[in-house]
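Please go through the protein record below and see whether the fold suits the sequence. Record follows.
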Amino acid sequence: MATSVVVSTSLSLNYGYRRSLSALSCLNPISKTNPNQTSHLCFSNLPRWSSKSAIYCRRVVARTSIRERESEKESESEEELGFVGEDSAAFRLGEQKLSSWIYFTAILGVVLYVLNVAWIDNSTGFGKPFVDAVSTLSDSHEVVMLILILIFAGVHSGLASFRNTGEKLIGERPFRVLFAGLSLPLAVSTIVYFINHRYDGLQLWQIQDAPGLHQLLWLSNFISFFFLYPSTFNLLEVAAVDKPKLHLWETGIIRITRHPQMVGQVIWCLAHTLWIGNSVAVAASFGLIAHHLFGVWNGDRRLAIKYGENFELVKSRTSVIPFAAILDGRQKLPKDFYKEFIRLPYLTITALTLGAYFAHPLMQAASYNLHW
């Protein structure tokens, strides 16, 4: 049978990204005494594309049958495709500047002070008049809850939709300040109203005494926060210390679902609705889930406009439904996939989630004191 030489070339870039090229050389006679002999030539003295060294390897593999050539092609096709997106939650301490974090702390303090004076404090802020004005539209807590969510969703998603235009007009940082300055107060009003009126609706079911339910819902709520906050990996961008960007993430939680915030919100809503079991919780969950389902379409649209073919490639190997791309083989998980979660941003989310759980009594007391 005729023999052939298969030559494959692989180039390893930063984040372990790999791009593979393969070519079939002309037929050459191979020694019959060792027909499967393999030789490897590796060179690591190539230019550096990032902080990690690029490694160039050439592998020459002799094959003696068509079946073996087909097996080689199948193994090559199973290799991980080169990433076109970003490595999510990557945090390198050596790249951090102390001045940036001091600036971030100062900005956070100013924002919280202004938020308190201009919105939260009933004697000086506009938060209570805003909630009172919305409450005059209906005597139903469910309807008011939905209106508050609709107002927040309209401002939040509306500004996100016009982000490209807004950044061109006033710049990335000023637009982020405008975005946060309008979205944050409305989010606070919606959350406070939900906390204060979550038990005012019609009771539909009462299953809080079911064995193991509290533990199950607590775990679900804990998991939901790992999905809810992938876009806040870089807190310096959130505070506009670093220039804000629309990221095309491709690792970590994005391997499981391309829209983790939607999935996290659905999990959170289901857990709280099952626990509370009344019409206000159902209304709040309906509004929040509807908003995030719209965000699935709007988010894909925005990424497609900005990243074009690169987004289409990421879209082809990810899924909206959790684990769907993994189960149908479009997403290939690396053996060390768990390492993509052992990173400081995820550890920070863990600490904040636990802190928020134990701070529930404080949050409830603060909300009641506002009388919204």
Q: What stands out?
A: The first strand starts at residue 4 and ends at 12.
